[in-house]
Design goal:
single chain; alpha+beta; Calcium-transporting ATPase, transmembrane domain; Rossmann fold; Calcium-transporting ATPase, cytoplasmic domain N; 3 domains; hydrolase; transmembrane helix; ATP hydrolysis activity; HAD family hydrolase
């Protein structure tokens, strides 16, 4: 290890603070001084919006403002029962705030568990602290997989290689020497060392970028942007329609002011899909809470939605299909090498690396004694190289250089040792080659000419839940791709033991051209000898072929692919770098949690698509009815109380249950287009049928109470059609869905037969001719709706099949 001798060097930032011994780190007094001066890494790392942001987002909305104004006007000019819609909005807003605060509490508690804790040297002792506790001039130790959390300057390096691609776009790791700068947001891929913090808090610009990129958010998802688009269109339609309705009701008909105000509000209020945003927030929030109970940290909320759309999951073998640890089961000497001598070499190699990976740790556990060998130079393991090494002075004074790594990388293709390696790989064993190098360790081609000395056979521990998880993905039509840096045959054997079938391919034979690579990826399932850059390229190739890709991993070699994938999933025990870039962290390190995440995403997206259709059918028929009223120059058929009753029974209450129900359908793209394909014809049928009943009733009834009778008939038709829309949306039926539809129908029937409820809601059917005509029109409209929606459904299915075929 090389380092800067800074035993008595002054603090470069604040010389007056006294000397800082960099090797030992700051003293407790120096830390306290920096805290007092505010030189602390105080950038807040939050997993969720603040309480103020949540309240503001739920209260101060465009439609709350519209509904609020209408509510105040209605309160002043109409009976209290016509103002019920305002109390519904208050309840909705309250529910939204409470659910999001619950989700925030869950996320914040999980974020503390999953937070990176850098190792800081203080008073000569290495201790773990939270990221926010780092102060200026702290000495921070780093090793493979560690994320650089603040800007700094290297003071010690030991084969230190840092990947800065997330900041600079440069794919090759950068070798660092003492005095070199390190930037927050980069991560260690090999070696280790220590650096002094030179910029902390908001001064470290890259840290700010990393915070913004990983912060929990409720925006930038197709679902929420789609709903925003719908609400924008609704606003455009609503403003001119509402103006026309106001003029129609207040001027043209010259009605009583209070009745005109009430009927105008009754026309405008149902145009607003006010509960749609609420239910979206609630569904997402409850999804976060459910996943939180399973120790799953959702660092970016749209990740729930993204996983619902995933059709390909790329899995890293180590840490995902297999447990992180391995065991040495056998060492086979080659070319007559003495077994005792080989074991001494392995022990020395283990002692040469202060930060061993899982394979070298297994060697250390098996051969802890390195004897009297001294390490002169070490080469840490790198995923790109596929080997590590060290140069020693042996006990007898001789010097030797040894490499430990992948046999097919260290040996030429014709070497006979590879045949034995292949047989072991076919049994699912992992094999390392111990070879004596003939070149210096710092030679970039040190592996050339290396002489094999022994094969180290490692046994991999399969995750007990991996087979069931892979079976789940297969049942859900999500294809799994295993991308591993290990030997392809060995990885294929492991995958086969877990029931994953398909072609096995050595990634070194993959074509570089993206389209050709995409075809090769579709043709095979298991890929071995994949380099970190290749993982990134493979994810990109799959995406270019129309796939929505999730990537799982826990090692530093997975970071680039995790960042580029549509959804990155990291294990909680994984490196700091993988946890930082992943949208989802499985804190319990259980691959079996992933199906729950996928299922939660499908439940949220599928159900929101369903209930969005309910809300927008109401918006469409409300706008259409208002236009027909303006053109026909008649009174608007409904009072706000009728709208509140219909909305509660056919949308509000059932939508809440449907939004939280199980749903296993994979989410489809083009949310707005798919919803509007059903909402526009559904709303048109409901609006035309209701207006037809209203006009027939106007011709039939005369006298002072004719308008109430006409309104009651129109309300009956609209309720029956809306109930049928609900019945279609609720399919496929289960006992509780049937009960839900029946309960809503029973609720309306109670209003029709209970005298005081008739009076409260101004609903009283007069005679039998018009009520039965209203029922007949509703039946015809329901049948028409069935035919139209089936036709739309068939077109969607054909379009989906065509897209699948093109893939």
């Amino acid at each position: 290890m090389t380092h800067i001798d800074a035993g008595a060097e002054l603090d470069p930032v604040h010389p007056a603070s006294g000397p800082v011994t960099r090797a030992r780190g700051l003293t407790a007094t120096q830390v306290a001084e920096r805290v007092a001066r505010g030189e602390v890494n105080d950038v807040p790392v939050r997993s969720s919006r603040s309480t103020v942001d949540i309240i503001r987002a739920n209260v101060f909305t465009r439609f709350n403002a519209i509904i609020g104004v209408l509510w105040l006007i209605t309160l002043a000019a109409a009976p209290i029962q016509d103002s019920l819609f305002g109390f519904v909005i208050l309840a909705n807003t309250g529910i939204g705030i409470i659910q999001e605060l619950r989700a925030k509490k869950t996320l914040d508690s999980l974020a503390v568990i999953g937070e990176a804790r850098p190792t800081v040297r203080r008073d000569g002792v290495a201790t773990e602290v939270s990221t926010s506790a780092i102060v200026l001039a702290d000495v921070i130790e780093i090793g493979p997989g560690d994320k650089i959390v603040v800007d700094g300057e290297c003071v010690e390096t030991d084969g230190l290689e840092i990947d800065e691609s997330l900041l600079t776009g440069e794919a090759d790791p950068v070798v660092k020497q003492p005095g070199d700068q390190v930037m927050s947001g980069s991560f260690v891929v090999a070696g280790g060392g220590a650096f002094t913090a030179t910029k902390v808090g908001r001064e470290a610009y890259a840290a700010q970028l990393a915070e913004e990129a990983s912060r929990f958010t409720l925006v930038h998802s197709e679902l929420r942007s789609g709903i925003s688009t719908i609400l924008k269109y609704v606003t455009w339609m609503m403003i001119p329609t509402a103006i026309g309705l106001i003029i129609s009701q207040l001027v043209v008909k010259e009605n009583d002011l209070k009745d005109s105000v009430a009927r105008t509000a009754g026309g405008i209020v149902p145009m607003v899909p006010e509960g749609l945003v609420l239910l979206t927030s609630v569904a997402f929030a409850i999804g976060v809470i459910r996943l939180g109970r399973k120790q799953c940290l959702v660092q970016e909320l749209p990740a729930i939605e993204g996983l619902a759309r995933v059709d390909t999951v790329c899995l890293d073998k180590t840490g995902t299909l297999t447990e992180g640890g391995v065991d040495v089961t056998e060492v086979r000497s080659l070319d007559g090498h003495d077994g005792t001598y080989v074991r001494k070499v392995l022990g020395a190699l283990g002692a040469s690396d202060p930060r061993p990976n899982a394979s070298l740790q297994a060697v250390i556990d098996a051969y802890p004694d390195s004897g009297d060998w001294g390490c002169e130079q070490a080469l840490p393991f790198s995923s790109a190289r596929k080997y590590s090494g060290a140069s020693f002075t042996e006990g007898n004074g001789e010097s030797s250089t040894w490499l430990l790594g992948a046999p097919d990388v260290l040996l030429p293709a014709e070497d006979p040792a590879l045949a034995e390696t292949e047989r072991l790989n076919e049994d699912g064993q992992r094999v390392l080659l111990l070879a004596r190098a003939v070149k210096d360790l710092d030679d970039p081609r040190v592996q050339e000419g290396a002489r094999p000395a022994a094969l180290v056979v490692l046994e991999q521990r399969l995750r007990p839940d991996a087979a069931d998880t892979l079976r789940y993905f297969d049942e859900q039509n999500v294809q799994a791709k295993v991308l591993s840096g290990d030997n392809a045959v060995s990885v294929g054997a492991v995958a086969g033991k877990l029931g994953l079938t398909g072609n096995v391919m050595d990634a070194r034979r993959l074509p570089d051209e993206r389209d050709e690579m995409a075809k090769a990826l579709d043709a095979s399932t298991v890929f071995g000898r994949v380099s970190p850059q290749q993982k990134r390229d493979m994810v990109g190739a799959l995406q270019s072929n129309g796939h929505t890709v999730a990537m799982t991993g826990d090692g530093v070699n997975d970071v680039l692919a995790l960042k580029d994938a549509d959804i990155g999933v990291s294990m909680g025990s994984g490196s700091e770098a993988t946890r930082a870039v992943a949208q989802i962290v499985l804190l319990n390190n259980s691959f079996a949690t992933l199906p729950s995440v996928v299922a939660e995403g499908r439940r949220v997206i599928g159900n929101i698509t369903r209930v969005a259709t309910l809300f927008l059918v109401k918006t469409v028929y409300s706008v259409l009815l208002a236009l027909l009223v303006v053109v026909s120059r008649v009174e608007y058929p409904f009072l706000p109380r009728h709208v509140t009753l219909l909305g509660t029974l056919t949308i509000g209450v059932p939508a809440f249950f449907l939004a939280l129900a199980p749903n296993k359908e994979r989410a489809q793209p083009h949310f707005v287009r798919r919803v509007m394909r059903y909402a526009i014809p559904g709303g048109a049928v409901a609006g035309l049928a209701t207006f037809a009943t209203y006009l027939i009733a106007r011709e039939h009834y005369t006298g002072r109470e004719a308008l109430d009778a006409e309104t009651s008939a129109a309300t009956l038709t609209l309720f029956l059609i809306s109930l049928w829309v609900l019945a279609i949306i609720a399919r496929p039926y289960t006992w509780w869905r049937i009960g839900l539809v029946a309960a809503m129908g029973a609720g309306f029937l109670i209003v029709l037969v209970v005298p005081w409820l008739q009076e409260v809601f101004a609903l009283k059917l007069v005679g039998t001719t018009i009520p039965w005509s209203a029922v007949g029109i509703a039946v015809v409209a329901a049948a028409t709706l069935e035919l139209v929606w089936k036709w739309v459904g068939r077109r969607d299915a054909l379009r989906g099949n065509a897209v699948t075929a093109r893939r």
